[in-house]
Amino acid sequence: MRKYFFLFLSLVFIFAPTTQALAYSKEQVGLNAHWALGGFGKDSKYEKRLDESRTKWVREHFYHEVLMGPDRGAWLSRYDQTMNNYRDLGISVVGMLAYGTEHGDFSPPTQQEWENYVRSTVKRYTSSVRVWEIWNEPDSPDFLEPNNPEHYVPLLKSAYEVIKEVDPTATVLTGGLSQLNRSWVERLYTDADGSFDGIAMHIYTCREPNHDLLRRQLSEVDAVIQAHNPGEQVWITEAGCSASGGISQAAALQYNKDMLDIVFTYPWVKKVFLYNIRNREEVNEYENNFGLLTVDMKPLPAWDWYSLILIGPYDKERTGLGKEEERAADLRRRMEHSFGAGLIPVSAENWPQFVSAYVYGGYPVQALVQAARFGGKTVHPSIGWDSWKNTDEYKGFIGKNWNEGRLVYAYGQPRQLFDTEVAKSRELQQAIYSQYDSPRLGISFDNWPKLVKAYVYGGYPVEAIVRAGLYDFATVSETVKWSEWRGSAEYQAAIGKSVPLKAE
């Protein structure tokens, strides 16, 4: 076991609390909007609120009864305009496909009716909708009759086949289960033959104290996922709290905050869609009061909180996976320059935060190296470098030395930053080429790195460097600094010897 193993563990441990990555952003937290179905007379308000909140994802219902019914033309025009609005706002859409051919009909349509509806809708909106959710709460008697997997799974399978035929790149989700339903998740794995790309579920545990029910249900679902597909993606397509029945707006807001903190501790939770963008007025007190906005779309306390959720790391738009991976590789290479290959003292859990700080936070490599050395003091998980660099915490650690016999690179010194070392190497190279006949100095591919180390870390002057290859390294020690080595007999005997100069 290497002697610095315990040191690395200690660094990782103390770093974790300081730089824990932001749990979620607008890429992970969206809204149930229902703009097409419920936004009549409020289009300008929807546009304003979605724009000002910098919403990135919404969920919309594409009802069978309206898109294939007698008023189909008017409804298609309505949906077309809504999808165009989302496109102009840069918002991605989850489209929920569901229900029978008539209002209030929650029985499965015939296979032909169902496939015609799915194909027609997906084909029309394939450029607007990236993700399709098949049915809504199929485990509830309120939305599927009868509400069992035997009647639901055929709908899921046929929809999956049709959607992939129309758009192979689309993501297909199961219908959002009415709760974190362990038994239904098990049946989806055993009965659906993989006819889904992700599982959708809903969370409504606001009236249960201490979040015990939520934690227990998450744990139960986690056990099923780990047994069948640990890499599963779960989309919580509805989650919220009704400010009714004695629950205040403040309590509903706190529930939403706590709920997100809890669910995002599970890596399989991909996104959560808050229910609902606004209050309703046509149902009952409970159903009417889930909104982050009033019926007339005026902000409630939860709206202000939602609006402040960052749009991405350091409140920046993500660059895309390919670019992030490229920058991450560059960061790893530069940090390994300081610590050694495979020896960066950052846990796998915390590495994404380093990448985010480098790519989006504007943090230089030196700040990240010092963060790894000193428990994260020089990097903040949500404040960018332009601001954080002015804090006392940053200033106190950015230039702090790291010796004490640990992580030493050469001559008792820690390795300097990649760019600094390259600049020093070029400086040495230029000094040699400008004054000396370099091909005759005995400098080779093998000994050049040693000479650079001596120059950068050992303090050796150029006159000592150029004589090393000629006189058996008498003028350069690989371990002793020049300030000490220059007094040795070997050095004194060789430093005055001739060296070929550059021809005039």
Automatic annotation (TrEMBL):
Transmembrane regions: none
Protein name: Asl1-like glycosyl hydrolase catalytic domain-containing protein
InterPro entries with a match to the protein in the record: Asl1_glyco_hydro_catalytic (IPR024655), GH (IPR017853), Glycosyl_Hydrolase_39 (IPR051923)
Asl1-like glycosyl hydrolase catalytic domain sequence ranges: 135-294
Keywords per UniProt: Signal
Signal sequence segment: 1-23
Recorded GO MF terms: hydrolase activity, hydrolyzing O-glycosyl compounds
Protein origin, superkingdom: Bacteria
One Pfam family here: Glyco_hydro_cc
Species name: Candidatus Kerfeldbacteria bacterium RIFCSPHIGHO2_12_FULL_48_17
